[in-house]
């Protein structure tokens, strides 16, 4: 007698309509551990930050170009907004000054300084502002990843449904070059930019599942 296959049912928010039946692909991002470390070469640390900043802007410029092609200029404008944050002279000056004054590693200063912006958004009573905090998270993690000279990695060779803790708008746009039939995330809402991008791409998406990656 054959045993019955177990069926797991997950409930979430339908962020983008549609039906997809494909194998699941677990997209796991590296969890960056940010330690508070003292430095001796301030000039080198500032150079490392500036180079990471430029690389981050170049990456987002490429994502913006791809987004214009896939989504149109109106939807792609959110990436221009992210680039503008990276060009914010007050933010850049604050980070550089803190690296020099506190003599701490640039990853720690970047994480601490940009997290302040996030905290203000998360504490807002407006759901829209809370969702926008994820865009700031993407910017922060992008700079830190580039300081550490790491790359965005994903190997998809067949049509799949991407399952992840969360997805950034850039993740969603970059995945549009691959064989992605749908998205499932633990976190996110209807107004998140990643959900909006998925709807624009006509890719089914379910968000707020909470335990999809387990």
Automatic annotation (TrEMBL):
Entry keyword annotation includes Transferase: yes
Keywords: Pyruvate, Transferase
One GO BP annotation of this record: phosphoenolpyruvate-dependent sugar phosphotransferase system
Domain PEP-utilising enzyme mobile positions: 157-213
InterPro entries in the record: PEP-util_enz_mobile_dom, PEP-utilizing_PTS_enzyme, PEP_util_AS, Phosphohistidine_dom_sf, PTS_EIN, PtsI_HPr-bd_sf
Gene3D superfamilies: Phosphohistidine domain (3.50.30.10), PtsI, HPr-binding domain (1.10.274.10)
A Pfam family this chain is assigned to: PEP-utilizers
Residue span(s) of domain Phosphotransferase system enzyme I N-terminal: 11-132
GO molecular function, one term: transferase activity, transferring phosphorus-containing groups
Entry similarity comment: Belongs to the PEP-utilizing enzyme family.
Protein name (Swiss-Prot/TrEMBL): Phosphoenolpyruvate-protein phosphotransferase
Organism whose genome encodes this protein: hydrothermal vent metagenome
């Amino acid at each position: 007698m054959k045993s019955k296959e177990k069926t797991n049912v997950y409930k979430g928010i339908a962020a983008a309509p549609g039906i997809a039946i494909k194998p699941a692909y677990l997209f796991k991002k590296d969890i960056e551990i940010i330690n508070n470390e003292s430095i001796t070469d301030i000039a080198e640390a500032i150079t490392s930050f500036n180079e990471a900043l430029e690389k981050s802007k170049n990456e987002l410029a490429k994502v913006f170009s791809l987004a214009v092609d896939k989504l149109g200029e109106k939807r792609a404008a959110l990436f221009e907004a992210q680039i503008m944050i990276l060009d914010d002279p007050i933010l850049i000056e604050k980070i550089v000054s803190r690296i020099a004054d506190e003599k701490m590693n640039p990853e720690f200063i970047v994480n601490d300084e940009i997290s302040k912006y996030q905290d203000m958004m998360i504490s807002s009573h407006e759901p829209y502002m809370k969702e926008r905090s994820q865009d700031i998270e993407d910017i922060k993690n992008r700079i830190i990843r580039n300081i550490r000279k790491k790359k965005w990695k994903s190997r998809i060779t067949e049509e799949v449904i991407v399952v992840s803790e969360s997805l950034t708008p850039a993740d969603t746009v970059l995945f549009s070059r691959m064989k992605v039939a749908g998205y499932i995330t633990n976190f996110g809402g209807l107004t998140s930019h990643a959900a909006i991008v998925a709807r624009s791409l006509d890719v089914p998406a379910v968000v707020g599942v909470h335990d999809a990656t387990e």
